[in-house]
Design brief:
By secondary structure, the protein is mainly α. It is built from three helices and no strands. It is elongated, with a radius of gyration of 25 Å. The protein starts with a helix and ends with a helix. It holds the Pfam family DUF4244. It comes from Actinomadura gamaensis.
Length: 64
């Protein structure tokens, strides 16, 4: 019986530290949102749009 109790106690101690806390989720969410905003700004810039349009036009010309 003691062995089972010890194993259960060890498992509970490990389980308490598993996963992220609410503060870590908040920081992770803010970081992901900031990264998404940065990517949006890059992709919507004139230079990147021209490059993407050029790639698409070349691909369509090759398909003809």
């Amino acid at each position: 019986m003691r062995t089972i109790a010890r194993a259960f106690q060890r498992r509970c101690r490990v389980a308490r530290d598993a996963g992220m806390s609410t503060a870590e989720y908040a920081v992770g969410t803010i970081a992901a949102t900031a990264f998404a905003g940065l990517l949006y700004k890059i992709v919507t810039s004139a230079e990147v749009q021209k490059a993407l349009l050029g790639i698409i036009q070349k691909a369509l010309q090759l398909a003809q």
